[in-house]
Design a protein that fits this description.
Layout (H helix, E strand, L loop, with lengths): L5 H29 L4 H24 L1 H5 L4 H18 L8 H19 L1 H11 L3 H28 L2 H19 L2 H9 L1 H30 L1
Length: 224
């Protein structure tokens, strides 16, 4: 595939679109993970969290063929993402944490969540790149400004509209449930039973929000 050929440019456009579509989810994860930190550390977390997430995504794309051979990968990733979604709600807007501990904890949350949510993205990008890793790098670099800008915007909105935390966690829960139903072990069953599939997804979302809110209220009650 020659550089700047029609085939190269069309593949690059496809990768950029894929990355930008996912950027919304990334911005939610980064914005919510950074919300509990002091203002002076939020920008650092956004930048380093984005860099870490992009690096992991690039490495994952390199080994995508190997990833496809691992049975249960989507199931494990989905379960871990459910836990992350629950924690986002349960921890609320608690600022009573050590800055350094919170800083690295936020970056860890961003990288893990992005890696889990990005499995489908990695597969799509790898397919569009046709083995050309330069396409993957260029596509990811184009998406970085969108993720950083979106994360900063969400941080500002969270202070004014706390419901965004719940909405963001629900988005993560939906993504997690979709990963589980797409797992090869269960995909055939859920495809044959679409009602059960959507009922399962809805139950996961409702459960994450319900138990997350319950934990948040219980924590607030014990503190007061």
């Amino acid at each position: 595939m020659d550089f700047l050929s029609a085939e190269y440019l069309s593949a690059l456009l496809a990768i950029i679109v894929i990355d930008l579509v996912l950027a919304g989810d990334n911005a939610i994860v980064i914005g919510l993970a950074a919300r509990r930190l002091p203002k002076d550390q939020q920008k650092k977390v956004i930048i380093w969290g984005t860099i870490g997430a992009i690096a992991i995504r690039a490495l994952a794309t390199l080994v995508v063929v190997w990833l496809l051979k691992i049975p249960g990968l989507l199931l494990i990733g989905g379960v871990l993402l459910i836990w992350i979604a629950y924690k986002l709600i349960a921890e609320g807007k608690d600022h009573d944490i050590k800055a350094e501990e919170g800083f690295w904890s936020a970056i860890k949350t961003i990288i893990i969540a992005d890696a889990l949510m990005g499995i489908d993205n990695v597969l799509a990008v790898a397919g569009a790149a046709h083995g050309n890793f330069s396409l993957v790098i260029i596509g990811l670099l184009v998406s970085i400004p969108v993720v950083v800008w979106g994360s900063t915007l969400i941080l500002k909105w969270v202070d004014r509209f706390p419901v965004i935390i719940t909405i963001g966690a629900a988005v993560l829960a939906y993504t997690a449930a979709k990963m589980i139903v797409d797992e090869k072990w269960f995909a055939g069953f859920f495809e044959s039973n679409p009602f059960v599939k959507w009922a399962f997804i809805i139950i996961i979302i409702i459960s994450v929000v319900f138990f997350g809110k319950a934990k948040q209220k219980a924590t607030a009650g014990s503190v007061s």
